[in-house]
Amino acid sequence: RRQKLLHPGKSLYQAFLDSVTLSDENVKFQIIHADNKVLLQVEICEIEGNIFRLKIDEAACLKARYKVPDVLVQEPTTQRLSISQKDAGILVLSSVNEDYKLQVTANPFQVELQSQGEAVLSMNSTGLLYFEHLQPPPSDRKPAAEKEEAASDSSKEKQEDLGLWQEKFGRFLDVKAHGPSSVGMDFSLHGFDHVYGIPQHTETLLLKNTSDGDAYRLYNLDIFGHKIHDKIGIYGSVPLLLAHKPNRTSGIFWLNSSETLVDISTKAVAEHVASGSAAETAKQRAVPLTDVRWMSESGIIDVFLLMGPTAFDVFKQFAQLTGTQAMPPLFSLGYHQCRWNYEDEQDVKAVDAGFDEHDIPYDVIWLDIEHTDDKRYFTWDKKKFQNPRKMQEHLRKKKRKLVVIVDPHIKADPTYTLYSQAKDKGYFVKDRNGQDYEGICWPGSSCYLDFTNPEVRKWYADQFAFKTYKGSTNILFVWNDMNEPSVFKGAELTMQKDAVHYNNWEHREVHNLYGFYQQMATAEGLIRRSLGKERPFVLTRSFFAGSQRYGAVWTGDNMAEWDYLKISIPMLLTISMAGISFCGADVGGFIGDPEPELLVRWYQAGAYQPFFRGHSNMESKRREPWLFGEKNTQIIREAIRERYVLLPYLYTLFYRAHTAAEPVMR
């Protein structure tokens, strides 16, 4: 609401072009807001491979603002920009090979990126650059400053209504210890009317124009049975938008892990066409223009402009920044059989035997939360799984694997070693009063490990050691679920934004990174237990840019309906374009009971998707592939076998994804 009070128009920011400094790394200058007189530092650099980076931060902050760590694989190698023109009110920067020029206008401040004289993309051209500088809390201010503020606060909106220092959400109170800190910026894409990306939404491939109050949202949430064509964010977020036109594909990577909204508006604008002779009147033609507005709750503006020019160039550029898809172990490209839940060791044996009996190949059987001792992860239910090692040996003889679920919430139980250790070491996320944050999840009252802390990640990785994780063997792999994080009875079923993480950062700053960090720690644990010899397999529900380096993702709690089968294809293509090749959707639909025809069709579609797993909910009827009559068993068998025939090809595609950032699904 605060950012929406700023309407498109002339920006109140202007640049001080006499403050420009040029180094090998970057070009820096300052901009100022005409009303609040706060100085911001702008930094522009060129990164080798046709990438430009623009950063905007406060020139002098009360305290450091959050800058996303660990997502970029390294600090990118920069190339020296040169100043090719500098006069009153205009600064032109040229790229090394002079193909690209950045034209900075001083008043109002805007930046236009041109390729061979043609505008490709401009920033702040609709004047929506927005930056809330950090301020002392109202109680710390000097009385004089208060009066001044009261006088300048002519807008009818009362401060509290805009949620500056606190905000009510249903029965929740979000206390903003550092006050308002949101940032935003507009980008105009010249000649583009097709934009894609910004997963994860239950949405078509081509992104739609957003109307007021209905922006695409990037905020990882546990949404059971997500509605189709909804712009609400679901389990994962990759703030990468791709724009495509016949002669160019470009990308905008907005590196920010706080709640983010993206508004899209495409229109036709008139462009003058130069006439052949002076006698002819100049013609006009309509060309498309897409405006994209990014709004984030906190952090700084740190944006990468990926200039392509081809789609595959953009995929490579994004991978150069955030890494390529981890090379999966071959078994993980086979078929996976899952359910909430396979009841006990006998059940696992029977399902395993069923595949042999019906001559259907499969590689992995999965255990959901019921396999644990009362939802204590890294343990086994003593009655149902009395001898997990023996069960794994049975699977190993047939060259099969086991995947178990390991969620980030830890049952608050002093007799549970994992909980008591983490509590003693101070490894849980805290609430705003400095106590361990407690929320309800599958085990009941739970605390949440602070995976943003490298020490916690290291300790967590150690929990996967064979001697520590009793009953685990080297054919056991891992599924990280509920890691948005999901908090039952929490605001929007997630953690409060004012919870406190490592280095005193609030949850609002790091929310979209929580699942990314859990998967990172889990993958590291699996690598370490094999002394660095074996590739890990970790499936995560929540993800961010860079999650491709740690394993696979899936689209979460879909429904056993035809529309969900249909939407799974564009959803997976969108995730693939955002760098995460190893992705899939629950075959058959997680919620409900598919009619046999739907199940059969879903197997046929899933056989051609990168991650291939049948999964169903506790309430669903059993649906192992042979339970729908001989004719359907035969069709499903053929689909799964087709997958296995194609494995060498698929493995090669994954090698291309790993080495050259080419999406597997295309």
TrEMBL record:
Q: Where is the composition biased (Basic and acidic residues)?
A: 139-159
Coiled-coil positions are none
For the region Disordered, give the residue spans: 137-159
The answer, when asked if rRNA processing is one of the entry's keywords, is no
- Domain (Glycoside hydrolase family 31 TIM barrel) ranges: 326-653
Q: Which Pfam families match?
A: Gal_mutarotas_2, Glyco_hydro_31_2nd
Q: Which GO terms describe its biological process?
A: carbohydrate metabolic process; N-glycan processing
The Glycoside hydrolase family 31 N-terminal domain covers which part of the protein? 42-263
Please give the Gene Ontology molecular function terms for this protein: alpha-1,4-glucosidase activity; carbohydrate binding
Kindly state which keywords UniProt assigns to this record, in alphabetical order. Glycosidase, Hydrolase
Tell me its family: Belongs to the glycosyl hydrolase 31 family.
Protein name (Swiss-Prot/TrEMBL): GANC glucosidase
Q: Which organism is it from?
A: Pterocles burchelli
